[in-house]
Amino acid sequence: MSSPIVDELLRRNKEYADSVHKPLPLLHGSDGKLRQGSRAVIGQYHFPSQRRPRKSDSTMAHTYDRLSVTCADPRIIPESFLGFRLPNNSPMGRLELTTSTYLAIPVIRVIGGRAIHAIENIVGLDAAFGVDTVVLVHHKDCGLTHFDEARLKATLRKRFPEQGAMIETIAFGAIGKLGQSLVDDAVFIKQHPLVRGEVVVKGFMYDIEGGLLEEVV
Ligand SMILES: [Zn+2]
Q: Which positions does UniProt annotate for Zn(2+) binding (predicted)?
């Protein structure tokens, strides 16, 4: 059903499709085989260890062998602060276009960037494509540092008084101590029974004022 929001979203999408979009590469290569892990790289991609990327590497490169878990907060845009080039050089992609910004990786955005919300995505992507590295990013002034589990559950109990038992089973991942949240999430992922022992988990704190990532784990 039409609404001002729907109309606006569709108008913006049409503008993008008409002016910027080009067909994106498919997961099956020209040999008909599904691209997996580092082989899922699409386009004129060369690993940084082999040589530095050149400006001529103009083709979009996707890889599935590493992925990022970040907060759903609209201020936290990993494609921007991690310097990914966005598909089809969309307006943000043009802003970010330098020789070092040529890579795109899967991004899982969940509240708080908490691993409990992302774990099924991580396990599923690993089963499908092979994930070598998980990059966790939490950020200062995260909404989940301003609420605790009890407060969120109290809100839900008020709205859904009949659903108390279900509400009790939920963990929102409220953050008591930023930084420790990254340590806890890295441990959670590493100890998960469906995560392979060789998967590397890194944790970074994103400073929304300075724009820098600080390595925590
Ligand atoms: Zn957040």
A: 71, 73, 139, 142
